[in-house]
Write a structure and sequence with these properties.
two-stranded antiparallel ribbon; alpha/beta; 205 residues; 42% helix; 7 strands
Length: 205
């Protein structure tokens, strides 16, 4: 059977279809939009994608995303930030979500995911030992576990509690208040909900 679409367009649809949440029909609409778009706009998009790998790196302390010319995340080096209060999140975009609330003045620690045996992600794949190091070096007084309100997020939070207890860590550990609906990731939560969750966080230990 003859190919119904030009190869270049079919290839683009196929690549767009690999993006999270993008099904075949959505991929087709995106591809057709780009086909009709001015070439200068597409070139700018292509440059942004091409520069992505070289322009972004991971902070060696917080594991948040930073510019490639930065050594450590500004959210950690900023003297106005309270290093004794650390919010532990699953992914880098969760940092952005909490920052948008304007309520949190501590620092962050990105785990790099959540414990999920079905996906082959165990504690050893997460930045948990590095968190223990930070707690000791920065003399952390409060740890806010801000993992997602999901089965994986809850499992990760419980593991962190046990891990820190087993390593003799006796600091205040809190969890975001249940202003966050079950199943909603931090990056998709609105600012008001996140603000209430931060203000109403509950003490675990």
């Amino acid at each position: 059977m003859a190919q119904q679409l030009p190869k270049a367009l079919a290839d683009l649809i196929d690549e767009l279809g690999h993006l999270p949440g993008v099904g075949p029909r959505t991929a087709e609409r995106y591809a057709y939009f780009l086909l009709r778009r001015a070439e200068s706009g597409n070139q700018q998009l292509a440059r942004a994608v091409a520069n992505l790998q070289t322009g972004v790196k991971t902070c060696p302390v917080t594991f948040a995303l930073i510019d490639s010319n930065e050594a450590i995340s500004p959210l950690y080096t900023d003297q106005a930030r309270d290093k004794t209060t650390v919010a532990v999140v699953e992914e880098p975009l969760d940092v952005i979500a909490l920052e948008r609330t304007g309520q949190f003045k501590g620092t962050y620690h990105v785990l790099g995911g959540a414990i999920s045996p079905i996906d082959g992600i165990g504690p050893e794949e997460l930045h948990i030992p590095e968190l223990l190091t930070r707690i000791k070096q920065d003399q952390v007084r409060e740890l806010i576990i801000a993992t997602n309100a999901s089965v994986e997020g809850e499992s990760t939070a419980l593991f962190l509690q046990r891990y820190l207890k087993d390593h003799g860590v006796t600091i205040t550990i809190s969890r975001l208040a249940r202003g966050l609906p079950i199943g909603v990731d931090l990056e998709y939560a609105d600012q008001i909900t996140l603000s209430h969750a931060l203000q109403g966080r509950s003490i675990i230990t």
